[in-house]
Design goal:
The complex is a heterodimer of chains A (about 300) and B (about 150).
Chain A lengths: L6 E3 L4 H11 L3 E4 L5 H6 L9 E4 L8 E4 L2 E5 L4 H6 L1 H6 L1 H8 L4 H4 L4 H7 L7 H7 L2 E6 L2 E6 L4 E3 L2 E2 L6 E7 L6 E8 L10 E9 L6 E9 L6 E2 L1 H9 L4 H14 L11 H25 L2
Chain B lengths: L1 E7 L2 E7 L5 H8 L18 E4 L2 E4 L12 E3 L13 H8 L9 H14 L5 H7 L11 H13 L1
Parallel strand pairs in B: 1-5
Antiparallel strand pairs in B: 1-2, 3-4, 3-5
Helix pairs in contact in B: 2-5
Classes of the chains: A alpha+beta (about 300), B alpha+beta (about 150).
Chain lengths: ~300, ~150
């Protein structure tokens, strides 16, 4: 039990929720699954400015569907629903893998993808997949809707671009072209119930001859203050025909451009860099194999 | 105070709670259902696992108000009115899956949620379903065996 007295509101619909955010500003804290918020409350670590929890449970933001060729996921959709959705598994398989790697089943059954994105943990399991998918995050407020590319969303550990009167309502994932393969690897010492030491997500689109990368995006998590794209590695992979040497050079570039916390008590930085190199190569090879099969 | 109604083990229960009261505290302290255990209060140990609308959840991480109007099953729901244990509970005993017993209610509820959805799970599916339930005594093998046994008999 927390010592702090909090009020609780469960507005019926998005509009009343946005009105509350205007009225309460930083005194309001959105409550989605609560799996990060409630432990923080137990430990009395909630922002002291917060007086009121505002539940998303009656806002109907739990959904997964296709719209104009894009995959659209409501922010209050649970990880279990994302991980087991046939649509996500077909259209963005690596995101299903990411959501399926969160905590335990008890956590995934209530924790939401929007909560994972908003809490902005450097090792969040959906972050590297969303970076590699070039997802768009839709923030709503009384002032209207603002679409934020995921690459501009994260501002550092536990910080995001959301303003006090905004709520994340939707995640839009652009449809993937043919000859595209995706892959996400979470590396942690235990296979369950562990934070990622390194997360590597790869989305590759091959050219018609399956010899070159038409496009490639690599998302990395847990190896910098915020999830990041391995831009230098991507540029190398797009430069010439794919070869083992090219993949090795790209994987090395990814390990050099990431920025693991040198003071981490969990994992030494050199080890994270080394794992980025290994997993970038492995992830690219697997995504390439899937892309060749997705002709 | 907020007034909520929970359907607990098939019975409608009305309770007044604070906004910050967890479902776990309502079950234990208000409704006297002490089978559900309280330990880490961080979603790490699984001792507080109950089934909410058909899904296994950590009741320490759920505010009671968020569960308003929903169906909760606790370990007390497994045995019948005359106290006879369910096949799942019997299998836990038969296979030696209970030692100190602290994790057992949570294990049983995770296993029940799995078997209700998937009556014949693979060993991997069982291990994934109970990955969020920590056991310090058994090493898990006997728990997995017990769940397999119910699946075979069912």
């Amino acid at each position: 039990m927390t010592k702090k007295d909090l009020n609780y509101l469960a507005p019926a619909g998005l509009e009343p929720l946005l009105n509350i955010l205007v009225e309460y500003g930083e005194k309001a804290r959105l409550l989605a699954g609560g799996t990060d918020l409630i432990p923080a409350m137990h430990k009395d670590k909630l922002d002291p400015k917060v007086t009121t929890l505002v539940s998303l449970k009656r806002t109907a933001l739990g959904y997964i569907h296709e719209r104009d060729g894009n995959l659209v996921i409501g922010s209050a959709t649970t990880h279990t629903d994302v991980a087991t959705s046939p649509l996500v598994r077909t259209k963005a398989a690596l995101l299903a893998t990411g959501s399926g790697a969160v905590g335990s089943l008890q956590i995934r059954n209530v924790a939401t993808i929007g909560g994972n994105v908003c809490n902005a943990g450097p090792s969040a399991d959906t972050s590297a997949p969303l970076m590699a998918l070039d997802a768009q995050l839709v923030a709503a407020s009384k002032r209207g809707r603002r679409v934020v590319p995921v690459s501009q969303w994260y501002l550092g550990p536990s910080r995001n671009t959301l303003l006090p009167d905004e709520a994340l309502v939707e995640i839009v994932i652009p449809g993937l072209p043919p000859r595209t393969g995706t892959h996400y690897q979470k590396f942690s010492p235990r296979s369950y119930m562990d934070l990622a030491w390194v997360g590597v997500a790869v989305v590759v689109t091959l050219d018609h001859k399956l010899k070159r990368c038409e496009d490639v995006r690599i998302g990395l998590s847990a190896v910098s203050p915020s999830p990041m794209r391995a831009i230098k590695a991507e540029a190398i992979l797009k430069s010439v025909e794919i070869s083992e040497d090219l993949i090795d050079r790209a994987a090395l570039a990814a390990s050099e451009e990431c920025n693991p916390n040198p003071r981490s008590r969990r994992v030494p930085a050199w080890y994270r860099r080394e794992m980025v190199r290994v997993l970038t190569k492995r992830g690219f090879l697997e995504a390439m194999r899937l892309a060749s099969a997705a002709v | 105070m907020l007034s909520i109604t929970l359907n607990v083990n098939g019975i409608s229960r009305k309770v007044d709670v604070e906004a910050t009261t967890t479902l776990l505290d309502v079950l234990r302290d208000r409704l006297g259902l002490l089978g559900t255990k309280k330990r880490c209060e961080a979603g790490d140990c699984g001792a507080c696992t109950v089934i909410l609308d058909g899904r296994a959840v950590a009741s320490c991480l759920i505010l009671a108000v968020e569960a308003d109007g929903r169906k909760v099953l606790t370990v007390e729901s497994l045995s019948n009115a005359s106290g006879e244990l369910s096949p799942l509970q019997k299998a836990f005993i038969d296979k030696g899956a209970v030692q100190c017993g602290f994790c057992t209610p949570g294990m049983l509820m995770s296993a029940k949620a799995l078997l209700d959805r998937n009556p014949h799970p693979t060993e991997d599916e069982i291990r994934e379903a109970i990955a969020g339930n920590l056991c310090r005594c058994t090493g898990y093998a006997k728990i997995v065996e017990a769940i397999m046994e119910v699946s075979r008999r069912g």
